Amino acid sequence: MGFASEAPARTLLTGVVMRREPVAGPMARWQPWRWVLADVVVLQGPPGVACVQWPSEVPAGPLALEPASGAASPDVHHWGFPGFPVVLHPEDAEGLYLNLTSPQPCFWVMWREGESEDELPAPQIVTLSYHDAGRWLDAQERVDQVPAPADVVRWMAAFVEHHYRPEPKRRARPASFQPLTDRFGQPARISTGERRRGPAGDSTGDGA
Question: Is 0.70 surpassed by the pTM of this model?
């Protein structure tokens, strides 16, 4: 069954969950703990996309999140950062399509470390666009990813189906139209005139 012809809603409001966890092994001598991206949750979204209940009003500042009962070590701490919109742009439908057709569609989060050990990390932007993530990586930013929930993937698929139009493939130039070159890569000359034989029977390049 196809999707409805009406353009689907294109905005989610998300929250980023970061986890502080101990570092194991020799690296712990220099860095006893580290921050990692734990999750991206949907706080507000269109019908059909499940939303979670944030512990405080949105938007709000970072807050400590209680781990699930017995799910985490006492040394592991989770912090939530709410209020990140994820907007699907029709002009970036290709970037969404590339995410959608990857082995694991995901959210990407660009975030930065705190300037001191006691400072919280700073998530900057959340996206579903493959192109956005590539630009941030090219700019040497920290970008991590987490799998997108199935309902978010379906929502993104509806948007892609409505807006994505693959560019037509350009017809390859026939080989007969390619310029001829000699073995040194220089343009080859073709003569249609009859080659004249010299006195000794050798052919010359002059016309008849």
Answer: yes
